[in-house]
Amino acid sequence: MDRSSATGRPAATAGIRCQVDIDVDGRFGWRLVAINGRSVAVSLTSYDTHARCRTAFHRLCSGHADMGGGIQHSSEGGGWVWVLWDTAGRHLARSARTYERHATCRSAYGRFRALLPELATAGTELWAQT
Q1: Closest to 58 (Cα-Cα) out of 120, 129, 128, 122
Q2: Which pTM value belongs to this model?
Q3: Which domain of life does the protein's organism represent (predicted)?
Q4: Cα–Cα dist 27/93, whole Å
Q5: Residue 29's domain is classified under what CATH number?
Q6: What is the pLDDT of residues 87-111, one digit of tens each?
Q7: Hey, CA dihedral for 23, 93, 16, 79, is it positive or negative?
Q8: How far apart are CA 99 and CA 92, in angstroms?
């Protein structure tokens, strides 16, 4: 069964895009955006160039199997967030929103982890602005 979209991308990643944002200090961070326009995940590290930010996102996707992650209380107060960290324990990404329920956050984390292998093979269309 072919589960590809009309664009040739796997159906699970069709319409997902990655955007690079610039903070007030002129540093770059990535944000993964779902087809409905909602942010799914954000980088927890900022980069000095747009290119380094994109490279970091690709490294995150391709190295996902070696990364840890889990659910924790939000630092802003009530609610839950998921976080992804590297082998040195540095937090690299987190959910773009806080979840009211632990189970909902755990489900979103599972979906994000399942997307990473497919995002690792995405080409320039992932970065297309729509």
Answers
A1: 120
A2: 0.84
A3: Bacteria
A4: 16
A5: 2.30.29.80
A6: 999 999 999 999 999 999 999 999 9
A7: negative
A8: 19
